[in-house]
Amino acid sequence: MDDDGRLAGDAAAGDHAAFDTLVHRHTPMMFRVALRITGSPAEAEDAVQEAWLSVWRALPAFRQEARLSTWLYRVATNGALAQLRLRRPTVPLDEAAGQVAGTTPERQVVDAEQVDEVLRAIARLEVSQRVPLVLRELEGLSYEEVAEILEVGVPALRARLRRARVALLGQLRERS
């Protein structure tokens, strides 16, 4: 059993310090996923808060057949999707592109604008395409992990990702 598994077991038994450790360790990842799915920092915060409440309630039933982080990705994804159902499906993604490495300040600006455009294009994808693309390409999860999180087979996931990539490329071509 890994450290997360031990902490999950302790938290399920009522150890609040173990649960706090899990929260501090995994909230950044959960927020990042929720933000990329919802496109809204406020909605991402709500989704993560609701996700942690769900985790706290469900921890005693967690069987540790999968890694804890895989389960948390699923809970965060479901929380973000629930936030999307509460509003219109199309939203702008206001996430900052961050500092992009380049050789000159001008190159950094161009690179940052390109990253920002890709993130906005991802936000315009249908949810069924956006979620697997975020988990696979932006979070770097394996096909098997994403398939498990979304509760689909790997072949179905590969088909979704192919459609998402084609749609993303189409949007990027339209903008250029």
Describe the structure.
Keywords: Sigma factor, Transcription, Transcription regulation. It holds the Pfam family Sigma70_r4_2. It comes from Amycolatopsis sulphurea. Residues 22-88 form the RNA polymerase sigma-70 region domain. This protein is mostly helical and 176 residues long. It has two domains: 1-91, Rna Polymerase Sigma Factor, Chain: A (Orthogonal Bundle), CATH 1.10.1740.10; 100-176, Winged helix-like DNA-binding domain superfamily/Winged helix DNA-binding domain (Arc Repressor Mutant, subunit A, Orthogonal Bundle). The protein is 74% helix and 0% strand. It has helices spanning 3-12, 16-38, 41-58, 68-85, 105-124, 127-138, 143-150, 154-175. Helix 1 packs across helix 2 (16-38), helix 4 packs across helix 7 and helix 6 packs across helix 8. The longest helix has 23 residues, at 16-38. The termini are far apart.
> What's the total count of β strands?
0
Assembly of the depicted chains? single chain
CATH class of the largest domain: Mainly Alpha
Main structural class: mainly alpha
Helicity level: over 70%
User: Poorly predicted ranges (pLDDT <50, ≥5 residues)?
Assistant: 89-102
Q: What fold name stands as the CATH topology of the largest domain?
A: Rna Polymerase Sigma Factor, Chain: A
| Mean pLDDT metric | 85
Rg of Cα set:
17 Å
Listing every helix as H and every strand as E from the N terminus to the C terminus, the arrangement reads: HHHHHHHH
- Report the CATH architecture of the largest domain: Orthogonal Bundle
Give the overall form.
globular
- Measured distance between first and last alpha carbons: 50 Å
Sheet bearing the most strands, described?
none
CATH-wise, what's the superfamily of the largest domain? RNA polymerase sigma factor, region 2, helix turn helix motif
Keywords: Sigma factor, Transcription, Transcription regulation
Family: Belongs to the sigma-70 factor family. ECF subfamily.
GO molecular function: DNA binding; sigma factor activity
Protein name: RNA polymerase sigma-70 factor (ECF subfamily)
